[in-house]
Amino acid sequence: MSRAKALQYYILARLALAPLMLWTIVTLVFLILRATPGDPADAILGNRAPEAAKAALREQLGLSDPLALQYLRYLGNLLRLDLGTSLTSQGRPVWDVVWQHFPATLELTLFAMAVASVIGLGVGTLAAARQGTIFDVGGRLFGIVTYSLPLFWLGMILQLLFAVWLGWFPLGRRYPANAGLPIEITGLYSLDGLLSANFGQVAIALHHLILPAFTLGLLQSGVFERIVRVNLKQTLVADYVEAARARGIPERRILFVHALKNAMIPVITVLGLTIAGLLGGAVLTEVTFSWPGLGMQLYQAIELRDYPTVQGILVFFGVIVVTVSIAIDIVNAYIDPRIRY
Questions:
Q1: Angle at CA 153, nearest 5°, toward 150 and 159?
Q2: Contact 281, 220 (CB under 8 A)
Q3: Is 42 a domain residue?
Q4: What percent of the chain has pLDDT over 70?
Q5: Residue 251: which CATH number?
Q6: Are 125 and 255 in contact (CB under 8 A)?
């Protein structure tokens, strides 16, 4: 079978598995929410509300129906792309919650990815190029520390240092109330400021974004550092690299043109997992920094036992992770001829 035909079958197989992965995510989210302690009626009405009022509310929300019926109803709504109605936002559709707050999460995730890529690739490349030196040891230590540190703890420490003691960055929020309403085109305030040539908005948005994005990106950079360091070390002792050295090619050119290019293939594979980690870390980051994104909404919905909102946000995140993972697999299959299907 030709490579083009095999690649076509591989792509079709990955696309065919996507609905199964999404169904698994949807089912797990539905069952875990029902298995956790707490009652939406108690969260909405309070613990001291009459039991009759709680029972009436459960009946109204469909929570008194058999679990199988609730599940089938939920699947039917999802097939119509209906995420339901929030229980705690005055009848607001969950889609409205997602579209209003997702741009803040996306902006945070993109900047955190940039921070993770720059730091991780830089430290990993330096550590691999200076094997057996203090840079190599420092790279290993960096990977261990960034993987082990709790995100919320690092976020609070950085806020205490740079926001409270030094006063360099603001505490919480995404945009100050006294600066007027930001121009919204895409919902990403920094990009909207560039598109509208409002550089004051860009500066304000970045000022509020730097600290949370750096916190999230710094912890995720350890993933890139370890992958780059390990694979670049293996590549630097490969036969074609030794042949390049024998031809007198400068070491810097060997590192950046020959070795690093091939060492980046596993990094692309890990990119999908990193994006999933960033979305998961965005929840803790947004809560720690009071960032008004989708992660903060998820946290508040969990506290209030708002089943439709929690399910809708998690399914939305799941669709993103599955889509990115499939895209990464396809790109990796195109650029790496060693992959077999």
A1: 140
A2: yes
A3: no
A4: 94
A5: 1.10.3720.10
A6: yes
Please give the Cα distance from 339 to 281 (Å, whole number). 31
**Is residue 47 in some structural domain?**
no
Q: What is the pLDDT of residues 146-155, one digit of tens each?
A: 888 898 899 9
The Cα-based distances of 234 to 6, 137, 163, 209, 266 in angstroms read 29, 17, 42, 37, 12
DSSP 31: H
- Tally the domains of the chain: 1
- Give a yes or no: residue 286 inside a domain: yes
Question: Do 44 and 57 form a contact (C-beta atoms < 8 A)?
Answer: yes
Please report, to the nearest 10 degrees, the dihedral formed by the alpha carbons of residues 56, 62, 68, 72 taken in order: 170
C-alpha torsion angle, residues 303, 309, 315, 318 (rounded to 10): -50
Q: The domain containing residue 295 runs over which residues?
A: 3-36+83-335
Cβ proximity of 105 and 96 under 8 Å: no
DSSP annotation of 254 reads I
Find out whether 331 and 8 touch, Cβ atoms under 8 Å.
no
Instruction: Tell me the C-alpha distance between 8 and 2, whole Å.
Output: 10
- What phi and psi values does residue 240 have, to the nearest 5 degrees? -70, -30
Tokens of 35: 């298995």
- Residue 54 belongs to a domain: no
Instruction: Render pLDDT for 118-155 as a digit per residue (tens, 0 to 9).
Output: 998 899 888 988 888 899 899 999 988 988 889 889 99
Using CA atoms, how far apart are residues 272 and 328, in angstroms rounded to an integer?
6
Q: What pLDDT is attached to residue 3?
A: 64
